[in-house]
Hints:
single chain, about 210 residues, three-stranded antiparallel beta sheet
Amino acid sequence: MLLGVALERAQPGQKILVVGFGAGCDALLFEATAAIAAYKSCAAVSAALARGVTNTSYNKLLSFSGELQLDWGMRSETDSKTSLSQLYRARDQVIGFAGGKCGDCGAMQFPRMPACVRCGSTAAMTPVPMADEPAKVATYTADWLMYYPSPPLFVGLVQFDNGARVLMEMVDVDPVKFDVGTPLRMVYRIKETDSQRHYNRYFWKAAPLS
């Protein structure tokens, strides 16, 4: 992250030294070329830091880092085992958030199904990345009953400008400013934690654009 911040501020000709220490030492030296002046990150570190929300709950920090064991009740007693073989087969959808465009009617959908949701065509769909596609809230609800490490769980339909409509988890929600029509951006976050196998499953979630 520090290298990312340095690249955002670098000027042509400047040198950047990255040093890592621990069980040995590594040093990497970079020199910014003239191309750095025209470079603009699509996901700047400074922009991510500016969107940060201050939380003063030390107990929440301990809970999220696994240092404090809380009794979440019976609703949390589920096995979150991930099928790694299925994850590999669908990696372009799970990791790349690639939807499908019907070759017959042009309808967009996620996930890609064997048949088009509009015309029923079984022709192969064209993969289309959706992580950067403009979107907004179509419907949403705050669920206080389902287990969630930081309740409530916001979930609802996300309407993409390309026509796709996806049921998604919504995060970084300010209930005062959040409503139907709120512009959204896609963020890659932890979906579930498999505490028995020490594995985190990631997926895309919807967050307010600003």
